[in-house]
Amino acid sequence: MIRYVMNLEHDFHILIIDDGSPDGTGQIVTNMLDEFKDRLFIEHRSGKLGLGTAYIHGFKWSLKHNYQYIYEMDADFSHNPDDLIRLRQKCVDGADLAIGSRYISGINVINWPLGRVLMSYGASMYVRLITRMPIMDATAGFKCYKKEVLEKIPFDKIRMKGYGFQIELKFTSWKYGFNVQEVPIIFTDRQEGTSKMSGGIFGEAFFGVMKMKFRSFFRKYK
After folding, report:
1. What are the start-end ranges of the H helices in the chain?
2. Distance CA 165, CA 161 (A)
3. Domain count across the chain
4. DSSP class of 18
5. Which pTM value belongs to this model?
6. Residue ranges making up the domain that contains 146
7. Is 139 inside any structural domain?
8. In this structure, is residue 7 part of a structural domain?
9. Are 137 and 103 in contact (CB under 8 A)?
10. CA proximity to 106, closest of 91, 117, 96, 97
């Protein structure tokens, strides 16, 4: 993934957040730092602190280093790195948050079991029903933010830490009035690694959406 992204036409930089991964990710990336000096970075954290906290750590790091476009994506090739260019262009053309969407033009998922497709698509329908947010792929994890969006979001008020984090960031961005647009992508089941999805993670997102919507009635988005 690192070598692929580094060979794309734009000068992309990569930050890896390593929570002591048992597969040796931290050491592998560390060994590549000199090869991609000033373009590849790694932040080490002790223990499993949650997906959401890892993203927040990365976002704060990116803002500190004054990046104008900040991406998040899976590194198992379920997200096609070539689509980074399309997400960037959508933001250049006016979007504040560009989402790589599996469902904006039908259901574009390859090699997923039917049950997983139904769960994912159903989750997005549920989020739209509860929040009224006009986003087809509410759980998508492939996104490009303009710096101004992440500067505005109060991370200390983000409650969900698992996969629900993806939903809460989109909802908060939308509530602040940012221009959120979806870019159709083809999502392919992971080529490397294993899924971290579990019943507990799904439950957090399910009930968390209702709590998030309720809390929004008492918040001011300015």
Report:
1. 2-6, 25-32, 51-64, 83-92, 114-131, 147-152, 164-175, 199-216
2. 5
3. 1
4. E
5. 0.89
6. 50-216
7. yes
8. no
9. yes
10. 117
